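FAQ: What does the model actually see?

It sees only this:
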Amino acid sequence: MNNPVHQLPRMQEFFSRTLLGRTLFYLFSVTTAGFILLGFLHIYYPGNHHAGGWSTSLMLIIISALAGLFVSFLLSLLFYKQLIVRIRTLSNILLYLREHEDAEVSFSLPGEDEINTLAQDIRKLLNVKRITEKALRESEHLYKSVFDSSADALLLTDNLHRIISFNSAFAALTGKGEDFIDRSRFPYDYISKSDAAFYTAFEEKHTIHGGAEAEIMNQQMQTISCLVTSSPVYIKGELCHLVRLTDITETKNLEREKKERQMQLQQSDKLASLGMLVAGVAHEINNPNSFILFNIPFIEKSFREIFSIIEGSVQDTSSLKVGSLPYKRFKSEMGDVIADMHEGAQRITKIIMDLKNIARAEPEGEVESFSLKETVEGVMRLLTPQITKRQVAAHISISDSFFLRGSRSKLSQVLINLITNSLEAAGTTGGDIYITIAEAERGAALEIRDTGSGIKPEHLSKIFEPFFTTKSGSGGTGLGLSLSRTILQSLGWGIRVNSSPGSGATVMIDFPPEAVV
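And it is asked to produce this:
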């Protein structure tokens, strides 16, 4: 047991140094004094004198003092209990806040100036609250700044894929309004269900760390290629997903253009190899053809002399036969045969020269002056077998004095592509091709018009795209018009196409004024 002697200093410290102890002491004193005063008033009140005298009065005073002490003791206990309960409750709250919010709380009972200590702790708590709120606002501002300033489209979705938050880049990417986005679900309202590869990657865990490609149709009905990543995040204890969309449309276009360029280079290599082969074949054909051209005059002269000898030595040639033909008929037809041989050899020479002109390698930037009519006629000679096979009539109306300054071989290559397209459009039913010089706003234009099947409107805007072809089943590569436009652009010339189904097509090659001599 505790010794009462040792408890006395603690009681004195409690009633002298603590605000609660002083308050209880004052309450005891005031209540006891009040009851004693009531006892004196009862004694000295004139109507309350008793026969007992002073002993009775003293007894009343003692009873009043005891009653006062008892009542003050009960009040003190009630006051102490209520105050201690509230202070301890507040102390527990402050202690909890100190453990969870970094507030410095040191309130305890009993102690000196508990109320002041409590007030200081509350002020500290309010200061911590203000600092915490400021840090929270700064953190939210930083988060919003990073979220909104991101070049990639960002959005938060809940576990039902409803969009909780999104940045301006996402709105710009999709072109959708806030009302639609707030009611939408990602990816179901943005990525087509036909994109099976994306949904296969997405549906497994709704998390895509490495990224998955998908296509989004924006408000302007344009297809945008995106790389989509999705990561789980927890916000207020709820599972959400942070989704990032990176626009890779330009990258995809560059990759596609790279592949197209590679295919064009491969095709150019093939054409270069073919050009070398053609030049070699032309050279090999030219040598024996030169012998033919050289020997035809000798043969013609020799036959004239032979005919003179025969007619001088044979009086009647009516019964004479040469090569199972009567002499007179043989003599008449031999002149035609030799003339045809000479014309054929000359045609071979012209074709060889045309092949050499087309296959001839020219240094980059080198230009020459050449006749447009001769160039067109040379191309038509090369295409004679196709023209004959398809029963097409070619009508060329170009002045002999129309000369161009540029690359003859490059223009010949373009003309072969364009005229071949016109011949293929004629099919096997025949038709006409008209090649004329037309007026243009600036300079002049070579017009190639056919009476073939024409071009469908949905195809007209795509005919210059690499690898676009409607003749894939017959070996078409889709590079003819694309390469032709590239060649003409390198010369500073232009190309236009007008057509309608069933009415043929018209191709215009525009020559600027400086290209016309």
